[in-house]
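I am still learning, so can you show me any protein sequence you like together with the matching structure tokens, please?
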Amino acid sequence: MMKPVYLIMAMLITSAPGLLDERIRLDESLIVPGSGAENIILGDTISEVRARKGTPEKTAQFNNDHELFRDIFGISSPAEVHYRKIFHYSIMGFMVFFSNDRVTAVAGLNTFRVTSDSASLQNGVDSFIFNYGNRDLTVLKKGSHALYLYRKQGIAVIDDGNNDTIDMYLVFPSAGTAQRGN
């Protein structure tokens, strides 16, 4: 009789927001939509990212705000994620976007990742959509490239070549969540 109580308590504890942040920091293979990935939490400062990940191989800095989906992917999106600086960790395969010296988004190229909702990126776009559903899904296409956007959850995946593979993922603040640092 006591075992179900322990299971329920374990589920409640592991789904608590603060604990998810800690799991992100400890497990680089974990993606938490709307919260973080690659051991980085949305809202982290530049110095926190450098302390955790080291010096990036490339850095880009801009004088004006840029919008992630419009300026990087060249598509109009209902999600607006602003940045003025990008750290590119090419060896580790991810990028970090900053506005006002705080993380606003993380983009990853390594598909050996799993979301907190148990969606493995290795299983492709169809499996990802099966896991997250069609509700709140926006598909943005440009040529043979498609971006599958879950604005309310704060995650998007990209399929270059329309071949059911996830080539990149993006984590950004979920809808209704103000970008920390703005």
Observations:
- The CA atoms of residues 6 and 113 lie 28 Å apart.
- The chain has one domain: 2-171.
